[in-house]
User: What shape does this take?
Amino acid sequence: MFPLAYPVPIAALPSEHEVDVQDLMRQFARLLSRESILVSGVTQDREYKGALKPKIILRDINSSHTYALSQDLGPGSVACNLDTSELALACGAIEKSAQSGAGVIFISKFSKQEASGYGLCDAFRSAMLARIPVVTAVSPHYKDEWRQFSGALSEDISPTIPALKEWWLRAQSHLNSQQMNEANPY
Assistant: This one.
């Protein structure tokens, strides 16, 4: 991990029930949007369009744009079907939103790819460097890697709207005090 002058609050939601957590993230993003907070990022979803196996997609929070993470490798294939080019495009979109001044960024999850240093790691880093609060899900299988990656920047949050609202108030208070300290360094 890299040092930051000021910590960035990250809400880490447990992802044991992945679909529920992704739905919760979308609900919270809509709630913040209604409060005129500029939200950005992606959540994970599954598409079942005639497929025997659901396709995993990342869905942009602000648009209908999707990134198809599952690629069709044909019948009988047992190879990994992750489309890393789509994952890179999603990562780039999140990085761009971090540079454009988003108020909060939703990143679908920290899991196998991120634990290996790939996937959406650069999206997390961009948000951290821009000091933008992040909401993400963390796979229980990669808790240790998450702790190593996020350090003290992350807070485990109960997967409920009230808990996320409470976290958001603390995050805003923390960021406001940082800005005041920057404005008046003495």
Remarks:
- The beta strands are 10-14, 39-47, 55-60, 66-68, 104-110, 134-138, 154-156.
